[in-house]
Amino acid sequence: MLKGKNIVLGVTGSIAAYKAAVLVRLLVKEGATVQVVMTPAAKDFITPLTLSTLSGRPVMCDFFQSENGAWNSHVELGLWADAMIVAPATASTLGKMANGVADNLLVTTYLSMKAPVFIAPAMDLDMYAHPSTQRNVELLKGYGNHIIEAASGELASHLCGKGRLEEPEAIVERIKDFFLGSSALTGKKVLVTAGPTYEKIDPVRFIGNYSTGKMGFAIAEECAAQGAEVTLVAGPVSLECKHPGIKRVDVESAREMYDAAMDAFPACDVAVLSAAVADYRPAQCAPVKMKRTADDMFIELTPNSDIAASLGAVKGEGQMLVGFALETNNAEENARLKLEKKNLDFIVLNSLEDKGAGFACDTNKISIIDKNEKSDFPLKSKKDVAKDIVSHIAKLLTVLAFMLLPLSASAEGEELNANVTLNASKVQGSNTEVFTQLEEALKAFINDRKWTPNVYEEVERINCNFTFVVNSYANDGSFDCSLMVQASRPVFGASYTSTLFQYEDKSIKFKYQPFDRLEFIEDNLDNNLTAVVAFYVYMIIGMDLDTMGELGGGEFLNKALTIANNAQNLGDAGWRAGSGGNNRYSIIDDYMNGAMEPVRKLMYKYHRLGLDTMFRNADGGRKAITESIALLKKAYEDRPMAYFTKLFTEYKADEIVNVYSKCTPEEKKMVVETLSNINPSLSSAWDRITKSNN
Question: Which listed residue (72, 99, 209, 454) is catalytic?
Answer without folding.
Answer: 209
